From TrEMBL:
Pfam family, one: Abhydrolase_6
Protein name: Alpha/beta hydrolase
Alphabetized GO MF terms: hydrolase activity
Organism of derivation: Rheinheimera baltica
Annotated AB hydrolase-1 domain residues: 53-296
Domain of life the protein comes from: Bacteria
Transmembrane regions: 15-34
Keywords: Hydrolase, Membrane, Transmembrane, Transmembrane helix
InterPro entries: AB_hydrolase_1, AB_hydrolase_fold, AB_hydrolase_sf
Length: 304
């Protein structure tokens, strides 16, 4: 896919290919481990006891990606592992997806009397974390965004000057393309970018399996909503601490990594208490590639 304003920018091969794929083609515990149907748009697995932490996976992923991290956290925290409708075998819903998930997650927080839960989100889930914290700043605690941003489109346009209006045509086109895909075609497309997602073949296969079981229409709707929803004008409303974690392991040079860091930093610049950290060894699924590093980052952020 090429951005509509491509000719206005010099090409930067490598980084932008990796970055775009990583953000758009994604996804024996302890006692007190149970599952529940919390809403139409998502289901929840609850693990552990303590301060509540909601963990949201990325595009075409489910709660299984969080289990390595949950094992490290469940002794201190009550973890609410989310699986979104239409992803990794979960039944899809009609109409808007991410706005529905946002609304129903806020209802879930109220219904279960979760006091300022921390939100840990990966990729699309990171976008959801920014959305929740800016929509209801009094309700949400610490935000930990794992390789995801308040607005996706700049990874295609190569500039944070990009607006929703610039991307509307691309978003419409992509949604239509996804709607016409078979599950096999969706799987084949995902397979092309697996080297960006995770380092080991085992984890790459895990990512592919989740995508293969995902609903193409739901994935297309999510991509459309990510490209047409810009949270940058509202993230300044976030009152809690924000930790944005980037993955630089698939980037090919120091210059690529510096460009990525600059783009990430610009997107959180208006948030009062925001910090950026990069893991230069990990690929997009940091929880699979660098589970100990990620768990330590989360624990440190939650304890501060």
């Amino acid at each position: 896919m090429k951005p509509s304003n491509e000719n206005n920018h010099k090409k930067q091969p490598g980084f932008w290919t990796h970055f775009a794929i990583s953000l758009t083609i994604v996804g024996g515990m302890l006692a007190a481990n149970f599952s529940s149907k919390a809403a139409e748009s998502f289901s929840v697995e609850v693990i552990g006891k303590g301060k509540p932490v909601i963990m949201i996976p990325g595009l075409m992923s489910d709660a299984s990606v969080w289990r390595p991290t949950a094992e490290a956290l469940s002794g201190q925290y009550q973890l609410h592992l989310i699986s979104i409708a239409g992803f990794a075998g979960k039944p899809a819903i009609d109409g808007e997806l991410l706005p529905t998930v946002t609304q129903e997650l806020l209802q879930y927080i109220n219904q279960h009397h979760l006091k300022q839960p921390a939100i840990v989100g990966h990729s699309l889930g990171a976008f959801m974390a920014f959305n929740l914290a800016s929509s209801a700043p009094e309700m949400i605690g610490t935000v930990i965004a794992v390789d995801g941003l308040p607005y996706l489109a700049p990874v295609f346009s190569r500039t944070n000057d990009t607006t929703v209006a610039m991307m509307q045509g691309q978003a419409d086109y992509l949604r239509q393309q996804y709607q016409q895909m078979s599950p096999q075609q969706l799987s084949a497309m995902t397979a092309q970018g697996l080297f960006i997602q995770a380092t080991s073949q085992q984890h790459q296969q895990q990512v592919l399996d989740m995508a293969t079981r995902s609903d193409p229409k739901a994935a297309g709707q999510a991509v459309y909503e990510l490209l047409t929803t810009d949270l940058r004008p509202v993230v300044h409303q976030i009152k809690s601490k924000v930790l944005l974690l980037g993955a630089g392991g698939a980037l090919t040079s120091n210059a690529d990594r510096e460009r990525a860091k600059a783009l990430y930093q610009q997107q959180i610049a208006s948030i009062a208490h925001a910090t950026l950290e990069f893991n230069e060894q990990s690929r997009h699924f940091i929880m699979l590639d660098q589970p100990a590093w990620l768990a330590n980052q989360i624990i440190s952020a939650l304890q501060e």
